[in-house]
Amino acid sequence: MTDTPVILTRNLTKSYGGFAAVQELNLSVGSNRITAFLGQNGAGKSTTIKMLLGMIRPSRGEGTVLGKRITDAEENRAMRRKVAYVAENKPLYNYMSVEQTIGFASSFYPDWRSDFATKLLNEYKLPPQRKVKALSKGMRTKLALLLAFARRPELLILDEPSEGLDPVGIEHLLQMLVAQAAEGVAIFFSSHQIAEVERVADHVCILDNGRLLVDASLDQLRQSYRRIDLVFASAPQEREFRITGVERIQTKGHQMSVFASGNAEAVIERARDLDAVSVEVAPVGLREIFLETVKEN
Amino acid sequence: MLWYKAWLETRSRFLTCLATLTIFCAVFVGHAQGLIRPEWKTDYNRLLFVTQQFIVTMWILAVVLLGMGGIVRERAIGTSSLTLSLPVSRARLLGIRVGVGVLEAIALAVVPWATVFLVSSLARMPILISQVGFYVLLLIAGGSAYFAMAILVSSLVESEYTAPAVAFGLVLLTAIVFDAWLRPFNLWRLLTGDFYIDRHTYLISWPFPWRGVLASMSAAALMLSTSISVIQKREF
After folding, report:
1. Residue A1: its pLDDT value, please?
2. Which A residues in the span 45-64 are in contact with B, Cβ-Cβ below 8 Å?
3. Where do the structural domains in chain B lie, given as residue ranges?
4. Do B172 and B137 touch, CB atoms closer than 8 A?
5. Which domain covers residue A68, as residue numbers?
6. B205 has a chain A CB within 8 A of its CB
7. For chain B, how big is the Rg over CA atoms in Å?
8. Dihedral of the CA atoms A14, A160, A26, A149 (nearest 10)?
C-alpha cells in the first residue's frame, strides 16, 4: 500500500471580494486513513470541499484529488467517478422515492454494489417506496450515506455525516467508516462531534478563519499536547514561560496553567528552576486541543 | 438516468399544460359544429386560426414554465451539490434538460393540433393536414427562441420564483415592444401565421417562412450556447 496523498493542495485560496474564505491552504490527505477536518462554522471547510469537487473555482493555488487537477473540468469529472461526497445538508431529490434515488445513483457508477446497497437498505430500515420528501432527517442522512458507501469509492468526503442520526445510527456510521477504511477507502470528513472524531480518526486537520492551524496524526497530537498546571510561592511571571511550544498561558494569583503543543519537558524544567510548589502534567483531549487552537487563533 | 431525472422534474408541469391545452382545443373546436352552413369552411378556418393564436399563447407560457429549473434552481433548494458531485459535465446536465424540454415542447404542439384534427374529423368538418402541419411546424421551429430564453433566464437567475417572473416578464415585454415598433419581426405573429394567412379563405399559404423561423432558431442556438457558458463558469 502506498501513501500517495489522495488530496493535495498548494496555496489553495478562495476570496470573495476582500474576504478570504480559505487562505493559502496546503493540505495533504493520505490514503488508507481517516482524516478529520475540524473547524468552527464558517472556518472554510465546506468551501475547501467545494473547491476540491469543482463546484467553486479557487482564486489562487492549485490542488489534486486522486491525482486529478481540481481546476480542470474534465479531470475533475473523471475524479468524481471515484469519489463519494455527502454534503452537510444531505441533499436528495424530494420528488424521487428511496428506490428511484438508489436506481438513479447506481447508474453513474460501474462499481456499484447492489448487494451492499440492499443490505444497508434493510439495516437502515429505509422504506423503498417512500418519497424522499416524506423521510425524516435521520432517514435522509442514512440514504445519503447508503449512496456514498455503495458506490465503492476510492475517497469518501463527508461533511457532518452524523448530523441527524440517533446514537445507534452514529455507532453504525462510525463502524462503517472504520470498515471502509480497512477496505482501503480514504476518508476525509468534517464534524463538530469531537468525541466521534477521536474514536475513528487517524489524522486531524484544524482549519480556522480559512487557515490550516493543525495538520497532524491523532497519536502525534496526543503525545505532544499537554496541560501543565503550576503553583508557585509567589505570583509567577508569564514571560518566563514564553518558550517554543507554549500556546497559551493563564495566570491566577499563584497558579499558572500552561497549554503546550510540544516541549512540555522544557516548561517543567523551567517551573522547577523557578521553585514551583506544585507541577501537574496532564494529557489533553482533542476537544481541548481544538478549543485552545481556535481560541488562540 | 439524467433523462429520467429531467422527466420527473418537469412531468407535473408538462402534463398539466398538455391536459389544459388539449382539453381546451377539443372543447373549443367541438363547439364549432354550430357553424355548419354552406360557407362553413371559411368560418371554420377562421376559427382554426383563432385556435392557433390561443395554442401559441398557451404554448409559449408552457415552454417558458418547462424551461425553468436546472442546477441554478437546485442551488436555491439545496440539491445542486448532489447533482454536481455526479461524474457528469455541466454541459451534459444542461443538454439533457434541453433535450427533455424540446421533446415536451414538441408534444405540446403536436397533441393539441392532433386533437383538433381528430375532433374536426369526428364532427364532419375535416381540415387539411397540410394546414395542421404548417401550424405545428411554425410553433415548434419558430417558438424555440422562447424555450431557449427560458433556459437562459433559469441559468442566470437563481431564485425559485424570480426566474419565472423574469422570464414571463420578458415574454410580455417583447410581445409589447415588437408589436408596437417592430411588427414585421414579431415572433408571436410569426408563430400564429398572421403574416401568411389569406384573409378570404383563412388558409395559410405556402411557402413556409424559413427566414423568420431560421432567425428564431439561430437566436435560440445563441441563447443556449450562452446558457452553457454561464453554467460552466458559475460557482455553486
Report:
1. 47
2. 50, 53-57
3. 2-31+38-233
4. no
5. 7-220
6. no
7. 19
8. -110
Three cell numbers written together for A64:
489534486
Is A281 an interface residue toward B (CB < 8 Å)? no
Regarding whether A64 and A206 lie in a shared domain, the answer is: yes
Complex confidence, ipTM: 0.85
pTM for the full predicted model: 0.87
Do A190 and A245 fall within a single domain?
A: no
Phi first, then psi, for residue A107 (nearest 5°) are -70, -15
Is A250 buried (19+), middle (13-18) or exposed (0-12) by CB count in 10 A? exposed
Tell me, yes or no, whether A134 and A267 share the same domain: no
Q: Which of A80, A88, A160 to mutate to test the interface with B (most CBs of B within 10 A)?
A: A80
To the nearest 10°, the Cα dihedral for B118, B119, B125, B127?
Answer: -40
B235: which chain A residues are within 8 Å (Cβ-Cβ)? 55-57
CB atoms near residue A45 (< 10 Å): 25
The shortest C-alpha distance from B62 to chain A (Å) reads 21
Largest CA distance in chain A: 73
Distance of CA B102 to the CA centre of its chain: 9
Sign of the C-alpha dihedral computed for residues B100, B105, B106 and B108 taken in this order = positive
Please identify, among A165, A196, A220, the residue that sits at the C-terminal boundary of a domain: A220
Record: contact A87-B8, CB cut-off 8 A: no
Contacts of A53 in chain B (CB under 8 A): 84-85
Residue A91 in contact with partner chain B when CB distance is under 8 A: yes
Whether residue A119 has pLDDT greater than 50: yes
DSSP A34: E
* A189 lies in the same domain as A269: no
Q: Is residue A283 part of a domain?
A: yes
**pLDDT tens digits, one per residue of B92-101:** 999 999 999 9
Bridge partners of A205, per DSSP, are A37, A215
Interface probe with B: pick from A52, A53, A55, most Cβ of B within 10 Å: A55
Is A236 in the same domain as A116? no
Count of domains for chain A: 2
With vertex at residue A240, the alpha carbon angle to CA A237 and CA A243, rounded to the nearest 5 degrees, is 140
The answer to whether the CB atoms of B84 and A53 lie below 8 A apart is yes
Number of C-beta neighbours around residue B139 at 10 A: 26
Question: Considering CB atoms only, which of A57, A74, A87 is closest to B235?
Answer: A57
Residues A101 and A45 in one domain: yes
What confidence tens digit (pLDDT) does each residue in B111-145 have? 999 999 998 888 877 888 888 999 999 999 999 99
Tallying the residues shown for chain A, one arrives at 297
Q: Residue A2: inside a domain, yes or no?
A: no
Give the Å distances, CA to CA, from B124 to B49, B110, B119, B202: 18, 21, 9, 19
- Domain end, chosen from A220, A237, A253, is at A220
